[in-house]
Amino acid sequence: MEREIIQTHDGSTTIHIKEWDECYHSKHGAIQEAQHVFIKNGLSLFQNREVSILEIGFGTGLNTFITFLEGQKMNQSIDYVGVEAYPISSEELVSMNYVEELGANEQKEIFEKMHTSNWEEKVILSDHFSLTKRKQFFAEIDDVDKYDLIYFDAFGYRVQPELWSTAIFEKMFAALKNNGVLVTYAARGVVKRSMIEVGFTVEKLAGPPGKREMFRATKSI
């Protein structure tokens, strides 16, 4: 499918898939969305402790990079796993302006290393942050009781409803530790019903700029 680089409303870039009219991030602001959904309503729940994170949709590396920067600021130890079936190209990578937009020029090499490091290998990016990229389909995930937090950032239900199915959320529920949390930009009723069906307790929260609502789901046994 044909992909193009576009600028979102907060100045940060994202990738647009023309055939689907679907973007990797919100057109209202890629960075704003990542900070609101995954940091404010996800990572912030685990302050002052080690945290293990699974990202569903590594994509451009924006969520990973913002999490790295936040972890450095908070002196927080983070073990991060990003799953992606279709990695972006090196040409697309150089078009991503997250380092500049986040004022993180000193960490430019870290952002690049996130993309150039080998898949299926744990890479130590700092004293407090490790990254493992796994090239696989979401349906192949079989982790059990491993993560404190899941960033669920798959393409939208409109274009890939199978990624929001009960079967996928069963895998997410299994992958989380007890009292683990899943956060996502999504707020469709059908998604909430699938989450509840597999055992999640679901909260509806205020969404990022341009989106009214989002979901946070907790595993509590």
Explain how this protein is built.
The longest helix has 13 residues, at 62-74. This protein has an 8-stranded mixed β-sheet with strand order 6-7-5-4-8-9-11-10, sandwiched between helices. With 221 residues, it is α/β, with parallel strands linked by helices. It is globular and about 45 Å long. It has one domain (29-218): Rossmann fold, CATH 3.40.50.150. Helix 2 (62-74) links the parallel strand 4 and strand 5. It has helices spanning 30-40, 62-74, 90-95, 98-101, 108-116, 166-175, 189-198, and strands at residues 3-7, 13-17, 22-23, 51-56, 78-83, 122-126, 129-134, 147-152, 176-184, 201-206, 213-218. The protein contains 7 helices and 11 strands.
Give a short synopsis of this structure.
With 221 residues, the protein is an alpha/beta fold.
Key terms:
3-stranded antiparallel sheet; 221 residues; Rossmann fold; alpha/beta; 11 strands
